[in-house]
Design a protein that fits this description.
- The chain is an all-alpha fold and 154 residues long.
- Helices cover 71% and strands 0% of the residues.
- The chain is built from 6 helices and no strands.
- The longest helix is centred in the middle third of the chain and has 24 residues.
- The radius of gyration is 19 Å and the shape is flat.
- The N and C termini lie far apart (54 Å).
């Protein structure tokens, strides 16, 4: 029996969900009704990964359709480049903080994925700054959490 792409994706999501859940158990602040703490959102995400992964796996198992080629060489290069950009984002956030690193990385990613579409530089800049600002407002003002300030500005 040949393993289908959906089965592989579903299994990977289930494993990722389990790993994220296990990582959240290391947080020392318990989830309570008064203060859900930093465990709540990752725990919800882990549950979502597992449920969606099981659904994708089941759908892939039951599907009788013939599969096409998943990614050609250029696609794999793009995936690896995206992972490298995200790793650079993590490193950059520890140095310059969320408010500088996030709009920059969002601009880089939107530029990478805008190939062949009619997006302007101005539109990508506005999108990147707006998304970073919205996330900042939600985390800092709505949830009362802090985001990394970075070693240079923190």
């Amino acid at each position: 029996m040949k393993l289908k792409r959906d089965q592989l994706t579903g299994a990977a999501l289930v494993i990722l969900g389990i790993v994220v859940f296990l990582m959240t158990t290391t947080f020392s602040i318990p989830i309570t009704a008064a203060y859900p703490g930093p465990r709540m959102l990752p725990t919800i995400a882990a549950f979502g990964f597992v449920v969606c992964g099981l659904g994708i796996f089941a759908e892939g198992t039951m599907s009788k359709k013939e599969e096409k080629v998943f990614l050609v060489k250029e696609g794999w290069v793009r995936v690896l480049l995206t992972l490298a950009v995200i790793a650079a984002y993590i490193a950059g956030m520890t140095v310059v903080g969320y408010l500088i690193a996030t709009p920059v990385i969002l601009y880089v990613l939107t530029t990478m994925f805008a190939k062949g579409s009619q997006t302007s530089v101005k539109g990508r800049v506005i999108f990147s700054v707006a998304v970073a600002a919205i996330i900042y407002v939600i985390y800092v003002y709505a949830f009362g959490l802090t985001l990394p300030g970075g070693m240079l500005f923190g």
